[in-house]
Specification:
Elements: H1 3-11, E1 18-22, E2 27-30, E3 36-38, E4 42-47, E5 58-63, E6 67-71, E7 82-83
Antiparallel strand pairs: 1-2, 1-6, 3-4, 4-5, 6-7
């Protein structure tokens, strides 16, 4: 997935939770916009972040070329959209 496409997904207003699927088969949840920082070579995802908090329990740095796709989890009672 191109860095520009990932950046567009992260800039959506209002921000909706996303699941980032990696090329190694793992998936990382991003529930809040402030839990992701864009870097030159990829993104840093902070883990364990809650709404309105700036405290994380950990982080993971992901290179742009390690991102396979981004999925919007289905909201309860509705359907989600997929971005590829």
């Amino acid at each position: 997935m191109s860095p520009d496409h990932v950046k567009l997904e992260l800039q959506n207003e209002p921000f909706l939770p996303i699941r980032i699927h990696l090329t190694d088969g793992r998936a990382l949840e991003v529930r809040f916009k402030h839990a992701v920082v864009q870097l030159k070579q990829g993104i840093m995802i902070f883990k364990g972040v809650r709404d309105q908090q700036r405290v994380a329990t950990g982080y993971e740095v992901v290179a742009w070329d390690s991102i396979d796709r981004i999925v919007r989890p289905r909201p309860r009672g509705g359907s989600g959209s997929v971005s590829q």
